[in-house]
Design a protein that fits this description.
- By secondary structure, this protein is mainly α.
- The protein has a single domain (3-284), classed as Ferritin, core subunit, four-helix bundle (Ferritin), CATH 1.20.1260.
- The chain is built from twelve helices and two strands.
- It has helices spanning 3-9, 23-53, 57-82, 89-98, 117-134, 141-169, 173-192, 203-209, 217-234, 262-269, 274-289, 291-304; strands at 245-247, 253-255.
- The protein has a two-stranded antiparallel sheet.
- A hairpin with a 5-residue loop joins strand 1 (245-247) and strand 2.
- Helix 5 (117-134) runs parallel beside helix 7.
- The protein binds fe (ii) ion (FE2) (2 copies).
C-alpha cells in the first residue's frame, strides 16, 4: 500500500499486521507506541516509591496493584509495537535503559512525598486517560486493542488517586496547605504533559494524517482543563495564578502557554534534565540486575529447542 492510499483509508482500527504498509507509517507508529510503553514503565517506577510511603495497608495494596497494572500496560504496548516489524521488545527496553528512549515529561521529576501520589495518580493519570481514550480510535488495530484494556484499568487508577486527594484535603489545615504547595509545583508540569499547541515536532501532522493520532495537543489539554479544574476546586485546591488560565469564546478553558517553562520541557524531551539521568540510571540498574534471567532463558531456549506441544 502506498502512502496516499494509507491517508485515504486512514480511520479507526483500519490497519493491522495483515496489511503491507509503507515504512514511514510503520516507523511513525513504532515511535508513538514505544514512547507510550516507555512512559508506562517510567510512570510505574515513580509510583512504586509510594508503596513505602502509603499510610495504611489498604493504600499499600492498592498502590502495588496500580504499579503492576502500569508495567502490564508497558508489556502490552511493546508487543503492539513489535507487530509493526520495526523493533523488538528487547531493543526498545535497551533503548530505554541507555537513555535513547523517550518518555513523558512528568516522569522525569523525582518524587519524595505521599502528597505527590494524587499528582501522579489523579492528575497525570487523568490527563493520560484523556489522551488514551482518543487512541481507542487509532488506525493501528493492535494499539487500539491495547487501549481497551489500558483505559479500563486507568479508570481505577484515577479513582485511587482521587480517593487519596479527598482524604488529604479533608485532613488538618497543615495537611491541606502541604497538598496545595505540592499542587502548585506539579500543576504547570501537568499542563505541559500535553505538549505545546503548535508542536515544533514534525511527527504530529503525519501521525494525524495517517490516523495514528486522533486529537491535537490543544484539544486534549482543553478537555483536561474543563474536566479537572472543577474537580480540583471541588476538593478545595486553588488553581495557581500562573500559568494563567482563561476562557475562550466557546466557553472552553485554555492556558497562556507563554507562562509555561518550555525551555525545561524541551530539555526533558531530550532526556537532558537533571532528573532524567537519575530516573534512566535507576531503570538501567534494574535491567542489569535481571540480565541473568534473560541469559538463562536464551541458553535454555537454544539448548532445549522449541517448547514441546501438548497433545489434544
Ligand atoms: Fe498506565
Ligand atoms: Fe495509570
Amino acid at each position: 500500500m502506498d502512502l496516499e492510499t494509507v491517508m485515504e483509508r486512514a480511520g479507526p482500527r483500519e490497519f493491522g499486521p495483515g496489511d503491507e504498509l509503507p515504512e514511514k507509517y510503520r516507523k511513525a507508529a513504532t515511535r508513538m507506541i514505544q514512547f507510550h510503553a516507555n512512559s508506562e514503565v517510567m510512570g510505574g517506577y515513580l509510583d512504586k516509591t509510594f508503596t513505602r510511603k502509603a499510610p495504611s495497608l489498604d493504600r499499600k495494596l492498592a498502590n502495588t496493584a496500580k504499579v503492576q497494572d502500569e508495567i502490564g500496560h508497558a508489556q502490552l504496548l511493546y508487543r503492539a509495537a513489535e507487530t509493526l516489524d520495526v523493533k523488538t521488545r528487547a531493543e526498545m527496553l535497551d533503548e530505554l535503559a541507555t537513555g535513547e528512549g523517550k518518555f513523558l515529561n512528568c516522569f522525569h521529576y523525582p518524587v519524595d512525598s505521599w502528597y505527590e501520589a494524587p499528582m501522579i495518580d489523579f492528575f497525570v493519570d487523568g490527563g493520560a486517560m484523556r489522551r488514551q481514550a482518543t487512541l481507542k480510535s487509532t488506525s493501528w488495530t493492535p494499539y487500539a486493542h491495547a487501549m481497551d484494556k489500558v483505559c479500563f484499568e486507568e479508570g481505577f487508577h484515577v479513582k485511587h488517586g482521587e480517593s487519596i486527594l479527598r482524604e488529604l484535603m479533608n485532613g488538618s489545615k497543615a495537611t491541606q496547605e502541604r497538598m496545595q504547595e505540592t499542587f502548585d509545583v506539579w500543576w504547570p508540569r501537568i499542563l505541559q504533559f500535553f505538549g505545546p499547541t503548535n508542536d515544533e515536532s514534525v511527527h504530529d501532522d503525519f501521525a494525524q494524517a495517517v490516523g495514528l493520532k486522533t486529537a491535537t495537543n490543544d484539544e486534549l489539554r482543553t478537555s483536561f482543563l474543563n474536566m479537572y479544574i472543577p474537580k480540583a476546586e471541588k476538593y478545595g485546591l486553588e488553581i495557581p495564578e500562573y500559568p494563567r488560565i482563561y476562557e475562550r469564546d466557546d466557553g472552553t478553558m485554555a492556558v497562556r502557554e507563554d507562562d509555561l517553562d518550555w525551555k525545561e520541557f524541551w530539555t526533558i524531551s531530550r532526556n537532558e534534565y537533571e532528573g532524567s539521568t537519575e530516573q534512566i540510571g535507576s531503570r538501567r540498574r534494574r535491567q542489569d540486575a535481571v540480565e541473568w534471567v534473560r541469559e538463562s532463558l536464551e541458553t535454555w531456549e537454544s539448548s532445549a529447542g522449541p517448547t514441546p506441544q501438548t497433545a489434544d
